From TrEMBL, chain A:
The keyword Transmembrane applies. It holds the Pfam family BPD_transp_1. It is found in: Cell membrane. GO terms for cellular component: plasma membrane. Keywords: Cell membrane, Membrane, Transmembrane, Transmembrane helix, Transport. This is ABC transporter permease.
From TrEMBL, chain B:
It is found in: Periplasm. SUPFAM superfamilies: Periplasmic binding protein-like II. This is Peptide ABC transporter substrate-binding protein. It comes from Falsiroseomonas bella. Gene3D superfamilies: Dipeptide-binding Protein, Domain 3, Periplasmic binding protein-like II. GO terms for biological process: peptide transport. Residues 78-446 form the Solute-binding protein family domain. The keyword Signal applies. The keyword Magnesium does not apply. GO terms for cellular component: ATP-binding cassette (ABC) transporter complex; outer membrane-bounded periplasmic space.
Length: 326, 533
């Protein structure tokens, strides 16, 4: 029960933030010249009839004043209606729901990859601090962190898809192959290997640095000396005593970055032609599809709130001194 | 059609018929049935129905599923498609199309003149971009029988104009799908249904579109391919990599980076060419805002033209796929190109400086005469390069240029609706007849905010008069002469300048056969396309 009360409180506290974000994005997009009908005209490549354009503006409600449009939007939102997408011609909720699985899948796999290997490499580096494994791992981390992800992605495609022909160059699954069950899971997995690596490597670099620093700090604490004095072997000391305490900064960071990743990654999704939220958001801005953009902001914000809530619960589990109510 | 027998046709017979049946032009090789054509789809569209939106992004998909009344043959001449023949009355106000018999929609219903009537009156005349202007004086379409459609116009309609326009602006939609519905919201807009060689199967937004072979296609035993798959790939470098990996077999409409065209062009697996795009010529523009008194002075406009070394720019930045333009009608337009002997502005920096001095714009501090804002359109790498080239060239003659880069919606609104620019540059698309989308750049009286039309604040009675006369002139020779006058006049007055001529570049995988065999191939139906093993 306490968990639910906490969840409720968290949600209530987030509502003002959510409102400010939505109104802010709405007003920000008003500053950009042109509207969704201009974007449509650009796609048509000319010859558009003035009357047709005026009719379309009325259809999308763009002939109203800005406060009236904002008021309409918020009133719909209260009734949990995200509105209609002008570029997709369907309800925004449907459009987002179609894109959500790919985004969540990519995010979850990239984050798990980065978390796991960041942890392992960080621990390895900390245990051989200033030795050659540490230097190697830290240098690699720096390289991953400093390389732009679009370049990484493209080079991965050139190597693994074009030259070696091991993996597909892009897309979410084999088009029109009609795979089902395990075959389909495998197919999607092979398509996600390169995007996961590309997206995960940058995060991996951050995590391994954090983990290394955190491990070094905890290794010098009194209780570790006590554990060693008890005669525990080094592996037990690290796994049972140090790791759990050193994980706290990592969990904080994962919580924060999960939010960023939920918004989708425009770069990785574009390079690998994946149907994620990032490309959808980018497309919505370029095409001035206000409803879709606000819908994505809304859904992402909800997801971030959820993830942060889970992180809070994890804190309490990892370190009982932090009360769940704190 | 019996294929083995066709393969044994004598060479001379094949040659003789190759004009009428372009699919025979590769007759020495036995066409293979089956296979999947994969196409690079760079920009997703809101709709896929070419009766409602005339743009290359729609034709690349919808043009395989729906068909126009008239198409273009290998030589670029109007050829029968859904219409088998046509004739015009002596006064040019009545045009009769005899429709092909035995054609069925993908849902099995017959194609009749009622479909043509509905599409013409409700879509071409009311919604279709360029169609609304072309069919402005269309009063009614009579349907005396299911296979005759009679177009009645209030003013004479030149046969040449309608036939040149029909391949792009003559796609027919099914009346029974659209009648009684809100046309804009009809689900068939993103799941098109037509009479074409391929049937729509599935559209996953952001990922792909699939169409499959239409077994009841009216061209018997065609198409050869089993499927067409369009892959949505927004990133140009990623698309080039997918071409190399064989995931994409065709990238249309200059959608890759210029560097990749050069790289893939040296690779024997690919054919990088402008062939098959002759009907899609475009020119790069330099547009002047006459509300700025500096630019309203013809000497300043001419000086700017003289200050730009166009051949140098083309040679160093655009390469083989562009050439120097000579005006609004490009040289690929065999019907209307007036030749290069119209007023031209060769690169001459001294003359540019002299003209600017003469106009009273002396160099001030830092050698600057005055400052202009330049708005480049955000499509096309060439436009970005060209705008930087303009900026640096004009600096040499004392004109400081600030480049203002906006996205598509912002560019359209700022330049064509708010008129908040000094110079703008983008593309003018030539659509086989100057009356379709070229003269609107010059004719006064365009509604405010209509993009790619005369929004410059420039009015010239002589130009207007020539344009109007050519619009309704029925004699092809006289019409061509009038368009010659038009080019001479606007090149002299230079309200906007079109100094570069380009044709879209396509990249083909060489496994494809019968590709690029008509001047609007990327938009055409691909009924004879096949894939070698």
């Amino acid at each position: 029960m306490r968990v639910f009360a906490l969840a409720g409180r968290r949600l209530a506290a987030s509502l003002p933030t959510l409102l400010i974000i939505l109104v802010g994005v709405f007003l920000l997009l008003q500053l950009a010249p042109g509207d969704t009908v201009d974007a449509l005209m650009a796609q048509m490549g000319g010859g558009g009839d003035a009357q047709v354009a005026a009719d379309l503006r009325a259809f999308y409600g763009l002939d109203l004043s800005v406060p009236a449009q904002l008021g309409n939007y918020l009133w719909r939102l209260v009734r949990l209606d995200l509105g209609f997408s002008s570029i997709y011609g369907k309800p925004v909720a449907t459009v987002i729901l179609e894109r959500l699985p790919a985004t969540l899948l990519l995010m979850a796999s990239a984050l798990s990859f980065a978390f796991f290997f960041g942890l392992v490499l960080g621990v390895l580096a900390a245990r051989r601090v200033n030795g050659w494994p540490d230097t190697l791992i830290s240098t690699l981390g720096l390289v991953f962190y400093a390389t732009p992800s679009f370049w990484f992605g493209l080079m991965a495609i050139v190597l693994f898809a074009v030259h070696l022909e091991w993996l597909p160059a892009g897309g979410f699954e084999e088009i029109g192959a009609g795979y089902t069950g395990l075959r389909r899971v495998l197919d999607i997995a092979t398509h996600l290997v390169l995007p996961t690596l590309t997206l995960g490597l940058i995060f991996l670099a951050i995590y391994l640095r954090i983990m290394r620093a955190s491990m070094l700090e905890v290794l010098n604490l009194d209780f570790v000396r006590t554990a060693r004095a008890k005669g525990l072997d080094e592996t037990r000391v690290v796994v049972k005593h140090v790791l759990r305490n050193a994980m706290l900064p990592m969990v904080t960071l994962v919580g924060l970055q999960a939010g960023t990743m939920l918004g989708g990654s425009v770069v990785v999704e574009s390079v690998f032609s994946l149907p994620g939220l990032g490309r959808l958001a980018y497309e919505s801005v370029v095409q001035r599809d206000l409803n879709t953009l606000l819908g994505i902001v809304f859904v992402s914000a909800l997801l971030v709130i959820t993830v942060n809530f889970i992180v809070d619960l994890l804190y309490a589990r990892l370190d009982p001194r932090i009360g769940a109510g704190g | 059609m019996n294929l083995s027998r066709r393969a044994m046709l004598s060479t001379s017979a094949a040659l003789a018929s190759s004009v009428a049946f372009p699919e025979l032009s590769f007759a020495q090789e036995q066409p293979r049935r089956g296979g999947v054509m994969t196409v690079h789809f760079a920009t997703e569209q809101r709709i896929l129905n070419p009766s409602l939106q005339a743009s290359t992004g729609v034709y690349i998909v919808g043009g395989k599923i729906q068909e126009p009344l008239v198409d273009l043959d290998a030589a670029g001449n109007p050829a029968p498609c859904l219409a088998e023949s046509w004739e015009s009355s002596a006064d040019g106000k009545t045009i009769t199309f005899k429709l092909r018999q035995g054609v069925t929609w993908h849902d099995g219903k017959p194609f009749t003149s009622a479909d043509v009537q509905f599409t013409a009156m409700e879509m071409w005349k009311k919604i279709l971009n360029y169609g609304t202007a072309l069919q402005l004086f269309l009063e009614a379409v009579d349907t005396p029988d299911p296979h005759t459609a009679v177009f009645r116009y209030a003013r004479p309609m030149p046969m040449n104009l309608i036939l040149r326009a029909m391949p792009d602006l003559g796609y027919v939609s099914a009346r029974h799908i659209y009648e009684g519905s809100d046309i804009r919201q009809n689900p068939a807009n993103t799941a098109p249904m037509g009479t074409g060689p391929f049937r729509f199967v599935q559209y996953e937004r952001g990922q792909f579109i699939i169409a499959e072979r239409n077994p009841n296609y009216w061209r018997n035993n065609l198409p050869y391919l089993d499927r067409v798959v369009w892959r949505v790939v927004g990133d140009r470098s990623a698309a080039a990599a997918q071409m190399e990996a064989g995931q994409i077999l065709f990238s249309p409409y200059s959608a890759l980076a210029i560097a990749d065209f050069q790289r893939l062009g040296r690779d024997p697996r690919f054919d990088v060419t402008t062939k098959g795009n002759e009907g899609n010529a475009r020119t790069n523009t330099l547009e002047f805002n006459f509300r700025n008194p500096v630019l309203a002075d013809i000497r300043v406009r001419r000086a700017i033209a003289h200050a730009l070394d166009v051949p140098f720019f083309i040679e160093n930045f655009l390469g083989d796929f562009a050439k120097k333009g000579t005006g609004p009608i490009p040289s690929v337009s065999t019907d209307y190109y007036p030749g290069p002997d119209t007023p031209q502005y060769a690169f001459d920096r001294r003359r540019a400086n002299a003209l600017l001095d003469e106009a009273g714009h002396r160099r001030g501090a830092g050698g600057v005469r005055f400052t202009l804002r330049l708005h480049p359109a955000p499509w096309g790498e060439d436009i970005a390069l060209w705008s930087t080239f303009i900026q640096q060239s004009l600096q040499e003659v004392g004109i400081r240029v600030e480049v203002v880069r906006l996205d598509a919606a912002g560019f359209l609104r700022t330049v064509y609706n708010d008129w908040n620019f000094d110079l703008a540059t983008g593309w003018h698309q030539y659509r086989n007849d100057p009356a379709v989308s070229t003269t609107v750049w010059y004719r006064s009286g365009q509604p405010k905010g209509a993009p790619w039309t005369n929004q410059w604040g420039w009015t010239d009675a002589q130009t207007d008069q020539i344009i109007d006369a050519a619009q309704t002139e029925l004699d092809p020779a006289k019409r061509k002469a009038l368009y010659g006058d038009f080019v001479r006049r606007v090149n002299d007055q230079i309200p906007l300048w079109m100094p570069i001529e380009q044709i879209f570049v396509s990249v083909f995988n060489r496994r494809l056969r019968n590709y690029a065999n008509n001047p609007r191939w990327a938009s055409s139906s691909w009924h004879d396309l096949w894939l070698a093993s």
